Amino acid sequence: MRITHIRYSASTKETSEWRPYQQIWHKYSRIAETRIWNMQLTQVEFACDPFARNCYWANPWTNDINIDTKAKFHLDAEDFLTEIKNERFAIMLLDPPFSDRMSKDKYGTENLYASDSAKMLRIQKLAGNLVIPEGYLIKAGYNTNRPHPCFDLVEVRIVAMGNCRNDVLFSVWQKNNYTLEDYQ
Fold first, then answer.
1. Ramachandran region of residue 112, left (φ > 0), alpha (ψ -120 to 50) or beta?
2. Is the residue at 122 inside a domain?
3. Among 17, 64, 134, 142, which has the highest number of CB atoms less than 10 A from its own CB?
4. Could you tell me if residue 129 is inside a domain?
């Protein structure tokens, strides 16, 4: 597992505009794209983002509950992942609002996800079920908790925001061993 620690003081509502997140995305999207090409996986979609906001990386599989975003779908993340349960992806992005302040800035409401840990656990399990073996789940947040039992941690990027602000953690998980029970 690789751990990197960087200082980055710029902040924006659009996580996909952060250079640290872009670097993670570019690294693992190239790996996934090569794997899909080499294995000729025709039934696999490239990426999915249930909290996309205005991020286009997973287009057309972008969702955000906020209808004023550029996401293609506008459902609650859990409902979205349930709706697409028959799809398979090489990469799953999980970048929900992970603080009350972030939720108020992005959605103008109290936190829909971080305040309900049971809901976030269900979302992570659904998301993990949609990733193909050897695919990636890239998670942004304040923790590096395992998002799904079938994933192993391969990289953590700690982004120190400076002053008294919380670090942002980007954790990259790869789907390895799994059993049929993990999909129930």
1. alpha
2. yes
3. 64
4. yes
